[in-house]
Amino acid sequence: MMFGIILTLFIAWKIYEYAYYKGESFDKLKRSLNNYIVSCNELNEHIEELKETYSEVRKINYGTAQLNDASRYNFKRKEQLKAKKSEYIHECSASVCKNAEIQPFKYLCKYFNIKSDEESLENFENVLNNFAAAEEGKQLLSNELEKIKESIKNDVPFLIRTINMKKFMLKLGFKVIDFSTLYFPVYTFRYVSPGGNKSTNCDIKLDINNLNNFVEYFSGIVKFKKSAAGQRALMTSKLREKIKQRDNYTCQKCELSTNDERNLLLEIDHIMPISKGGMSTEENLQTLCWKCNRTKGAKVNS
Predict the structure, then answer these.
(1) How many domains, in total, are found in the chain?
(2) Nearest-5° angle of CA 14, CA 18, CA 19?
(3) CA-to-CA distance for 264 and 241, rounded, in angstroms?
(4) Does residue 244 lie in a domain region?
(5) What is the spatial distance between Cα 159 and Cα 263, in angstroms, rounded to a whole number?
(6) Is residue 245 part of a domain?
(7) 188 phi/psi in degrees, rounded to 5
């Protein structure tokens, strides 16, 4: 009896839902929001592009192999069997693994062959700049979507917005926002015992906080050639905010500001690109909105 009632309600709901999404009122609402949908989806796409900027990412095919244990005492060596090869994993002794926990940046540079030069420093600064923009963009995009939901609340049937608002937003055409931080690279020091039954890992995740600290640490061991260390600003989150404040949170190209658009993603751009010899100095940095920065490419602004 109860099952029959539930089944009837479910079928009734599906018929109602189908009729609504095929109806004129939903189509009219979708058309009225078209510009917002396009803008939000473009920003979402831009954020995904920023996530892919880690300069050290290299996909290597290590081939395939199978470990067969034919030892006399039938040791399973389960940790050895679980251990996967990766350019982000360094097989080491237990003492190296422990020391990496104590001095992560020192051991990261030493064992993962990160050259202590200006080019590497600039690469990590660029990664930090883009990752910070991606994290900020995710939050701003989420805020914008919540604002849109609130503005159309009275135009959406109670059952639709109560039962499955997520499906409603997808039906409108908004793309799903990936809030995960899986794009932050993780370097691992791994010790596997000779018997293969025990392992220890030390993971160094280059998230925003660690990248800020790493850029500052790394600058201390770089032998500068293009400029003196004291004359060079480090592209950290602190500097990003300083440049935005200096430019009054206004895009220096289209002059759009956070006063005009509350959830505007502002990014820090090198006026003279690094690829053309530009430096991360305050006079070579400017605030651009994400659209202007996206279209600039490697052009030099006048």
Answers:
(1) 1
(2) 120
(3) 14
(4) yes
(5) 29
(6) yes
(7) -125, 130
Please give the single-letter amino acid code of residue 78: K
Q: How far apart are CA 279 and CA 3, in angstroms?
A: 69
**Under-70 pLDDT residues of the chain:** 55-85, 225-231, 297-302
pTM score of the predicted model: 0.83
Q: How far is the C-alpha of 42 from the C-alpha of 37, rounded, in Å?
A: 9
Determine, yes or no, domain membership for 238.
Answer: yes
- DSSP conformational letter for 192: E
Looking at residue 280, which CATH number applies to its domain? 1.10.30
What pLDDT, on a 0 to 100 scale, did the predictor assign at position 185?
92
- Residue identified by tokens 């820090």 is 268
Domain limits at 265?
A: 227-302
The pLDDT, as a whole number, for residue 75 is 52
Determine the 3-state secondary structure of 289 from DSSP: strand
State residue 60's pLDDT score.
46
Q: Is residue 167 part of a domain?
A: no
The two three-digit tokens of residue 68, written as one number? 């067969």
Give CA–CA dist 256/263, Å, rounded.
Answer: 11
pLDDT score recorded for residue 59: 46
Tens digit of each residue's pLDDT (9 = 90 or more) over 67-112: 555 555 445 555 555 556 678 899 999 999 999 999 999 999 999 9
